[in-house]
Amino acid sequence: MDWSPLWISLATSVTATVVTLLTGLAAAAWREGRKGPAMALVDGVFLLPLVLPPTVVGFLLLLLFGRSGPLRKLFLQFGATIVFSWPATVIAATVVAFPLMYLTARAALEQVEPSLLQAARTLGASEWRVFREVALPLAWPGILAGTILSFARALGEFGATLMLAGNIPGRTETIPIAIYFAVEANDMTQAATWCVIDIAISLALLAGLYYWMHLQAPERVRWARR
Amino acid sequence: MALEVQIEKKLPDFTLDVSFRAEMDPLSVLGASGAGKTMLLRCIAGLERPDRGRITLNERVFFNSEPRVNIPARQRRVGMLFQNYAIFPHRTVAENIGFGLEALPRDERSKRVAELIGRTHLAGLEGRYSGTLSGGEQQRVALARALAIEPEALLLDEPLSALDTHLRSQVEIQLQETFAAYRRPTLLVTHNMEEAYRLGPRLMVLSRGRVVASGAKERIFQRPPTVEVARLTGCKNISRARAISDHSIEALDWGCMLRLAQPVAQPSGFAGIRAHHIEFVEANGAASDENIFPCWLVRSSETPFRVTLFLSLLERSSSSPQPESAQLQAEVYKEKWQRFRDKPFPWHVRLRADELFWMKE
Question: Which of A23, B209, B240, B324 is the most buried (most CB within 10 A)?
Answer without folding.
Answer: B209
